[in-house]
Task: inverse folding
C-alpha cells in the first residue's frame, strides 16, 4: 500500500495490489492533499518506470486512468500535468461504491463502529490537509 | 608544439593509471564484508569471491593492456597527434567501461551471495519531481562557455583577415598560415564535439534511475543530491577547461609565430596556472563529496532497496545484450550480471556519438 510523504509515494513491489493501482491511488492522494497542485508537471512515464524497474506500460496505465478521471492532462511533448483536484462528473451512487466496499471490509473484520469512524476521520484529515 | 602534445598524452595516460588504481581497490574499499556495493558473508574472498575479484581486476586492466602497445608504437614513430586522439578516445572508452564494470560485478556478487543475503526490502519511494537537465543548468557557466568559444572563433576569423591572414594564405596556397587556420578550425570542431558529449553525459546523470528507499529516505536524497551536484560541477569544469584550451590554442596558432620567447613562456605559465586552478577546484569538490560519503555511507543504503529482478525480454550475445522496447532501463539485470538494452533510445544516441567521434578522429588524422 502507499503512504504519503510530501511529493513522494511508496510502492510495495511485493504487494498483491498491482503497481499501476498503487501508483494511481498514490497520485490521487497527493493531488487530493494538494501536494501536487494544478499545473504541476508529473515525471515522464520513462522516469517513473525506470525508478520502479517496471515496464513503461505499467506507469502509462496509471497515467491513463488518472487522465480518464480528469485529474491529469497528457499533453504531447510537455508530459502529464495535474489539471484539477476534482474528478470528472460522477454520480453520488458511483462514488459511494468504493467507500461501501472498504467499509464492508472493516465491518467484517470486527472493528467497532467508533474505531471505524475514527479511522475514516483520521484518513480524511490527512487527505484534506492541503485542501483549500 | 610536440612537447605540448606529448605532455597532454602523458597526462591522459597518467589519469587512466590513477583510475585503474582506484578501481583496483574499489571492491574492498568498505572492508572484507563488502564487494563493491554488495554485502558479502565472512570468508567470501577465500571462496567464490576470490575468482570474482581476480576476474574483475583482469577486466579492469584490459583497456590499458590493449592500448599500451599502440601508444608506444605511436611514440616511437613520432605520430603525436594520433597519440593524443588515441589517448582521448581510450579515456572516454575507459570511463564508460569502468562504470559498466562496477555495476556488472556488483550484480554478479549479488547473484553469488544469493539467499545468504538478509531479507531484502520490498518498498520503494518515488519522487514526483521531474528530473530535467534545465533545472540543473548553471546559466552563468553556460554563458561563460559560449562566450569563450565565440571569442575563440572570432579571433580565428579575425586572424584570417589581418595582414598575415591565414585565410588568404589558405586560399592562395601559402602553406604555413593555411596550416594554422586549419588547425583552428579542426580544434574548434573537436572541442564543440566534446562539449556536446559532456552535455549528453550531464543529461544521463540528471535522469539517472533514482528510486528512493522507503527507510532512510532523506539520507539517501542528501547523498544523491551531493553526488549529482559534484558530478555536474566536474563536468562543467571540464567544459570550461576545454573552452579555455580552445581559446589559448587559437591565440597560439594564429599569433604564436610573432611572439618572443619570453611572451611564449608567459603564455605557458598562464596555461599552467589555469590547469592548477582546475585541479584545486576538482580536488576541493572531491573532498566535499568524500566527507558526505563518510558521513552517510551510501553503500549501506543499498540494502534498503528491493532486489532488482532479472529483466523480461530477449537476451543476446550470451546475456550481454538485451532487447525490449517496453523496458525503460539502458542497463538491465541479466542472469549473469547486467546487459545493455539495445531497444533504448539512449543506446542509439551514444552509439551515434561514438561513431561520430571515430569519424571525426579519422578526419582530423588525415
Result:
Amino acid at each position: 500500500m502507499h503512504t504519503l510523504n510530501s511529493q513522494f509515494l511508496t510502492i510495495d513491489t511485493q504487494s498483491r495490489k498491482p503497481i499501476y493501482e498503487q501508483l494511481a491511488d498514490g497520485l490521487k492522494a497527493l493531488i487530493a492533499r494538494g501536494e501536487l497542485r494544478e499545473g504541476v508537471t508529473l515525471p515522464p512515464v520513462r522516469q517513473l518506470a525506470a525508478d520502479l524497474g517496471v515496464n513503461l506500460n505499467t506507469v502509462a496505465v496509471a497515467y491513463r486512468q488518472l487522465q480518464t478521471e480528469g485529474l491529469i492532462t497528457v499533453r504531447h511533448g510537455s508530459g502529464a500535468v495535474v489539471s484539477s483536484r476534482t474528478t470528472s462528473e460522477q454520480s453520488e451512487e458511483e462514488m459511494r461504491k468504493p467507500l461501501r466496499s472498504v467499509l464492508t471490509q472493516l465491518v467484517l473484520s470486527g472493528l467497532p463502529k467508533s474505531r471505524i469512524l475514527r479511522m475514516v476521520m483520521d484518513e480524511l484529515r490527512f487527505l484534506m490537509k492541503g485542501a483549500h | 608544439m610536440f612537447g605540448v602534445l606529448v605532455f597532454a598524452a602523458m597526462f591522459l595516460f597518467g589519469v587512466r593509471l590513477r583510475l585503474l588504481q582506484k578501481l583496483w581497490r574499489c571492491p574492498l574499499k568498505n572492508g572484507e564484508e563488502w564487494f563493491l556495493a554488495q554485502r558479502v558473508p565472512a570468508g567470501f574472498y577465500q571462496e567464490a569471491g576470490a575468482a570474482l575479484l581476480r576476474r574483475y581486476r583482469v577486466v579492469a586492466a584490459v583497456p590499458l593492456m590493449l592500448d599500451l602497445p599502440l601508444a608506444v608504437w605511436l611514440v616511437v614513430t613520432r605520430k603525436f597527434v594520433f597519440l593524443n586522439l588515441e589517448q582521448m578516445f581510450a579515456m572516454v572508452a575507459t570511463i564508460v567501461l569502468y562504470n559498466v564494470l562496477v555495476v556488472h560485478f556488483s550484480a554478479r556478487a549479488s547473484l553469488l551471495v544469493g539467499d545468504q543475503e538478509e531479507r531484502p526490502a520490498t518498498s520503494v519511494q518515488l519522487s514526483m519531481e521531474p528530473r530535467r537537465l534545465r533545472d540543473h543548468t548553471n546559466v552563468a557557466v553556460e554563458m561563460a562557455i559560449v562566450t569563450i568559444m565565440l571569442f575563440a572563433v572570432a579571433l580565428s576569423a579575425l586572424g584570417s583577415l589581418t595582414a598575415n591572414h591565414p585565410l588568404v594564405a589558405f586560399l592562395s596556397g601559402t602553406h604555413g598560415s593555411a596550416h594554422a587556420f586549419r588547425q583552428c578550425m579542426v580544434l574548434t570542431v573537436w572541442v564543440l564535439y566534446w562539449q556536446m558529449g559532456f552535455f549528453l553525459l550531464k543529461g544521463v546523470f540528471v535522469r539517472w534511475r533514482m528510486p528512493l528507499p522507503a527507510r532512510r529516505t532523506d539520507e539517501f536524497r542528501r547523498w544523491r543530491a551531493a553526488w549529482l551536484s559534484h558530478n555536474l560541477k566536474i563536468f562543467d569544469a571540464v567544459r570550461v577547461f576545454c573552452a579555455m584550451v580552445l581559446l589559448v590554442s587559437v591565440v597560439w596558432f594564429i599569433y604564436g609565430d610573432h611572439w618572443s620567447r619570453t611572451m611564449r613562456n608567459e603564455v605557458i605559465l598562464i596555461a599552467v596556472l589555469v590547469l592548477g586552478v582546475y585541479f584545486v577546484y576538482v580536488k576541493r569538490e572531491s573532498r566535499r563529496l568524500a566527507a558526505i560519503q563518510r558521513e552517510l555511507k551510501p553503500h549501506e543504503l543499498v540494502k534498503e532497496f528491493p532486489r532488482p529482478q532479472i529483466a523480461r525480454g530477449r537476451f543476446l550475445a550470451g546475456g550481454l545484450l538485451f532487447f525490449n522496447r517496453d523496458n525503460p532501463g539502458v542497463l538491465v539485470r541479466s542472469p549473469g550480471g547486467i546487459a545493455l538494452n539495445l531497444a533504448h533510445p539512449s543506446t542509439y544516441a551514444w552509439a551515434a556519438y561514438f561513431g561520430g567521434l571515430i569519424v571525426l578522429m579519422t578526419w582530423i588524422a588525415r
